[in-house]
Amino acid sequence: MADSDTNNIGNNNDEELQNLSRAECMRILGLPEDADDEAVKFRYGALLRQYKKKVDEYGSTYEDLAYYRKITAAYDTVFGFTHDFADDNPTSPIPFKIRKRFGKFATWFEQYRLVVMLGAVIILLAVVFIVQNVNRDKTDMKLKFVGAYMQSLDVNLTKQLDEKSEVFDNAQITFFTVTTETNMLDAQARAAAESFLGQLMADGQLDVVLIDKESYEVYVRQYAFMALDEIYQKYCETHSDSYLLEIYEYDSFLDDEGMIVVPQGIYGIDVSSTKFFEDTGLVWLYNSEKGQEKTMIFCIARRSNNVEKSAEFLDELLNYGK
């Protein structure tokens, strides 16, 4: 190709490339008009490699792009091809169709970026909510220790009890620790007490409550527990040693207007002697020096949705290791 032709290639616009004659194509490619197809392919390949080498070394200019378009238009015309000259980076290893689609997406994203980000946040929150509910559905026992108990910090009590029990496999275990040193006028202690009462009064938030005697006296008055008369009666029918059980009966509690607030019944069964919690991460905090006994009373939350399994757990506690 003549130097003057090469220097002027960048000045031609795309409209001039639409109806090239064979003679013009050969002139652009620097070939004689009677050159065969193999010569055209060889020449175009050589020019394209030169173009790519220059662009890789020095970067692309508008003149370079115009040059590429012109030699490609000549080549395409000879062979009857159609080329999309909207590609501004013909040497990219990524196909132009993919880059074109990505460019459209980038433009769209820039325009609706805030909407997309808000949507992404909503989707993320939805996923978290779904995961939490799925995990919650897997929980087969919601157990709370209330009173002079705490969980050892270096032992996974939940895992221990899951492995030990034949009744549940995935318990949710929480604590509301109250000792002789706890001041219920303290804001933190009062908030914990209100949170526990809220759990007791909400549907399905708790199943079994294992509570010491001092705390039991407080919460049984609030009708927080389910009457265990039927469960106790069934236990007596199937266990000959049921007479040894210590039960916590409660007489009817009346309000100031004489209305029954808490019906008469059995609301707790003593499980203090159970061996189920031996060699686990459960820590007893009773203070015998201050007259506090080692007590654990089994209660079922009045709003529990898992009464049958809770009753099975009571049987397990009373007979574990026998």
**Fraction of residues in helix:** 40-55%
Low-confidence region ranges: 1-12
Strand content: 5-15%
What's the CATH class of the largest domain, please?
Answer: Alpha Beta
Q: What do we call the CATH topology of the largest domain?
A: D-Maltodextrin-Binding Protein, domain 2
Order of strands across the main sheet: 3-1-4-10-8-5
What would the principal axes of the Cα set say about the shape?
rod-shaped
Distance between the termini: 103 Å
| Contiguous helical run count | 11
Total count of domains = 3
Please tell me the CATH architecture of the largest domain by its name.
Answer: 3-Layer(aba) Sandwich
Alpha-carbon Rg, integer: 41 Å
Kindly state the mean pLDDT as a whole number? 84
What does this structure look like?
- There is one protein chain.
- The chain has 322 residues and is of the alpha+beta class.
- It folds into three domains: 3-93, no CATH class; 105-138; 140-319, 3-Layer(aba) Sandwich (D-Maltodextrin-Binding Protein, domain 2).
- Helices cover 46% and strands 13% of the residues.
- It is built from eleven helices and ten strands.
- The strands form three sheets. A six-stranded mixed beta sheet has the order 3-1-4-10-8-5, with helices on both faces. A two-stranded antiparallel ribbon has the order 2-9.
- Helix 2 (22-29) packs across helix 4 (62-79) and helix 3 (37-58) packs antiparallel against helix 4.
- Residues 1-12 have low confidence and may be disordered.
